[in-house]
Amino acid sequence: MQSNRRSFLQALGLGVAGLTLGWPVSQAKAQGGWNGRFLLYVHAGGGWDPTSFCDPKGREAAGSPDPMNNYLMSDIRSTGGGSPIRWAPIGDNDAFFQRYGERLLILNGLDTSTNGHDSGTRYAASGTLAETHPSIAAFYASVYAHELSMPFISNGAYDSTRGLVSKTRIGNISALERLADTNDLGGSVGMLSRATLDRIERAQSEREADRLARNPLPREVQARAKRIGARATDSGIGRLRAELPNLQNYRTNLGRQGAVALAAWRAGVSASANVTTGGFDTHANNDLGQATALTNLTQGLDEILREIERSGATDQVTLIVGSDFGRTPGYNDGNGKDHWPVTSMMLLGAGVRGNRVLGGSTARHRPLTVDAQTLQPLPEGTPGLVLTPAHVHRALRTHLGLTGTEADRLYPIAAEELNFIG
Amino acid sequence: MKSRSFGLSHGLALTALFAVGCGGSGSADDPALGGSPAPTPDAEVTGGDTPAPGDGPPAPGGDTPAPGGDTPAPGGDTPAPGGNAPLPGGDTPAPGEPCVDSDTFFVRKVWRETVRPVCATCHSANGSAAQTRMVYVPEGAPDWQRRNLEAFSGVALLQQDGVPLVLLKPSGRVAHAGGAALPEDAPGRAAVAEMVDRLSNPEAYACNVDAQKQDVWAGVELLDPAETLRKATLFFGGRLPTDAELAMVDATGIAGLEPALDAVLHEDAFYNWVRWTANDLLLTDKYVGNSRAVDAIDPTAYPQAKWFSVAGVSPGTGEEATWFRAAQVFTNDSVAREPIELVVHLLKQDRPITEMLTADYTMVNAFSARAYGVQDSVRFEDRFDPREFVEARLPGVPHAGVLSTPIFMSRYPTTETNRNRARARVVYDSFLATNVLELGQRPISADSPIHNPTLNDPQCNVCHSVIDPLAGALQNWSARGGYQDVEAWYPEMAPPGFGGEMLPLEDRSTGATWLADRIVEDRRFDRAMVRWIFKAIVGSAVRREPLAPAPGMEESPEYLDALEAFEAQADDLARMERELRANGHDLRVLIKSIVRSPYFRADRSAQTDRVPGIASQPDVGVGRLITPEHLARRVQAITGFPWRPRADGIDYLLDASQYKVLYGGLDSDEVVERPSEVNSLMAAVQSRMATDVSCLLVAQELARPSAERRVFGGVEVAYRPFDANGFEVPQAQAAIRETLKRMHWTFLGERVTDDSLELERTWRLFLETYQENVAAMASGELTPNLSDPCRARTDYRTGLELPADRRIMSDPNGTVRTWHAVVFYMLSDFRFLYE
Fold first, then answer.
1. Within a domain: residue B427?
2. What is the model's pTM?
3. Best label site of A353, B302, B446, B560, fewest CB within 10 Å?
């Protein structure tokens, strides 16, 4: 019995005194909450077409054969004034790049080495093609905030945690709100009085102790301890609810996902999130499909960034935007574009030095090698370094203070260290 | 005397098998054995001719000859015959420690430390040395220990120039495709040499294994027959046991479980369990809802998939619109669930589970039949019933069970470059218990100079030689699961086939069927089925061998416990695999075997000072968090009411937009593994469930006639423990206590007695809560009015107004709120939420 009680206490993270204090054992940890930076990984699902977005190519003239894009090169936009930021004249790109270009770090010509949705999604989110590494958002939360009630919120894409941290999926916010006060029935009083709840808790504690005295097996000891810990941890839903803006004011699903994630961060219960938008797998009617999907993406990003500004957290939130891969040069018979392993990523927010484009691609969207110091593209055919999502993640780990952690050693990124973010 | 403890033995006692014709007993200077030095004087056997348990064979001077010493090469590290069982390292164990039989020695010191990591990747059925005389089977394959020892022995006793081949080949001194895999100074070489000696001189290493064997489950208390019955009926049937079933097990013990299990394993609720369990394996529920499935499958192969969407007709208006919407949902979901319904069909028809792959038909209902254009060739009793599935053959499609269903193939799509490799990986994982990704877990160079490396470079083809043939056998299935003719498969890939057998040209158009026939003949199929069902019932994947401990920690109790548990489970599962095959792949035989086993029934330790090693593992005993699917039907089975937003809605725990995924359910797309631990949000879901169900249950039950109640049959709203003057009301108290007693059994599986501490605790909770409520109402702190959700104005199930005299709108007696507390107490208890 003694050994069971001891292992129970160990599992609970308590001394003997802990039991006498009732349930709230690790609440202090959660109540302190997370007030560090928030990491938001934005995934454009299906494989975006960078040439319709931040790596524009265009066509020389209306009748040019086998064009990369249907828009003209002369219509490619830029903010001017020497800014390297350029974009395709599609969807709401103008509004987005005009407003956020100065804060954007664009990485073009990234070689993903894959045409597979799953592997490409994984590469963009974790820095490796293999099914081995946690996603960057999960990784970040595991290092800084694994004690929180919902350290890593996922709305999909590659969100593996590799067991480092718990993952919370928030589908229906009203369902979540019902968990804020589980005794609430919508009236002025809850179903049970505080005194009754305490009485129930005492009776259950007594049952717990009696069972422990009857030599339960370690699985049960662990499960009971974990449950006690979970019940004692403030879920933070009440604070999240208090932070939530009116979600009906958001036009895009991406914006709503971002708003909930940011509310959880402001509530101190979350440190990172995956948010997603789809519609990019445009095997047919590429231009229309990309324009629609890109509009959803840029409008969603705009809603998220405005929410960050409203919170006064511009220097507290880092955004990573990526997709599965790119789309083939030119159009197929259905005016669509198929899978292509060359893509782009975008970074902005806390600590990101913007108004820059690193890497690049040829006129037919093949990756160009880059100067290892400046990361500026070299003339086509020059031997040198080819940028990949692995380089981006290696740099992100350093930027986010993850390099050198135990998880970093467990899940290494096979790429040169190129510190280009800040 | 030298011997060494390896903890508890699961030896195979096979040594005698190799004692005949093994080249004699050998001697220290027998060149065939490498000519080790003669035994030293202290190598004598003490205690007679036959070593007693605890006595190891005599030691050759106390130390294994050190590499580089005076032991002549080759094979100079072979220990002296006639000596004891010295282990590399040469520790001197304490007297009386059990000796190590040769079977155990082979598994632990030879197989795991050397043969498996060094030799077995190539020397396996799918490896590059598959055609040699030494071919090993994966650990956990049926009879793997015996088969691998035979494979080793078959070569170990062959010699060249007096040196055993198992030592000579990997030494690098003779031709060996694998090179110097085990050079003279390799640390594992001494153990291999000793194993050769053991096989040559079995008598010298004999030890009484049986005397050392122990019942690994001794010291673990199991659920009693009634508790086992309750757990089984709730788990598989979503119901409590009947009185007759309980009487049977009470009278006959665990044997009485059999008829109850047979009954529950044929009930409709069991088939729902089969559906969840099949989806855990196949994950095709990803496509349930909207038009996900009919959007996903190949529109060229199945042009009628969206038959319900007729230009100019659908969706129509009024009833017609309703019909078309329903048709869409029914069609989509029946296409999505086609593989799962096949599994259900096999169970309903008592067919072998091998037909999951070999069925030459598929399952359609009236809606999916139209999607496949076969509506005129199948008959339904009720063509409007989406639940009625029948066998059907799609014209021109060579069926291969779930493999040929369009949704399974769509779930694991392929591309021009992937060429079915992802599908092959899933088939290996799901139906052959083989994680092909683990085959290649070694560093590879990205700069292979070899032409077509997936075929020719050993660092690539270690996986691809396994995957590619199977991938080729699936060549007739398009990216989105349509059947297609293929002119020729990719010549740069390994030829289509399986297990070393090439797919004959004449079978190319029916490759999946050809493949399925071979998979189900492979013993790994049995293993995959056992692993799948075991995990579904026990809640944990089968154990993996514990990582090798750090040097010096080989004897640590934690490691030995884990090793013992791993080996015991491997033995148990191997037995279940044999049973499954011997019983015609009847899945119910396997299910019942698991239910009777301690994996389902282990409850607690019988000892106060220690936990038996096998029960110290995190997959044994109570403590599995009940899945949302199980919890949903447990709530309904025990209380009689579902936990839903409204009576005609979807259970909170089954709705992905509510709490299904939040509480650990799968969405079969992104979330495909169930969590094993509860977090704070899940704990909040538990509390919310307890609140909502308590609130609904008490008034709704008490508003019904007593005979129709499930929980409160013996009490009424007016049953107060004390009257208005504070005097006890004995009859009411007795009825309340009887209800509490029954609730302990139905809610928590506890048979409490009238004088038990548990009943007293619950009774005290009732009394104190009652007194609090009465006092609060007397003081005006609490009004009698109940919160709206806790009232009974209408019947929950019918929605009809209750007669005025049966309505419960307020609680002037304080009993309704008191029962709320008791029900909440039960519903939020560990034993309700875990099993």
1. yes
2. 0.72
3. B446
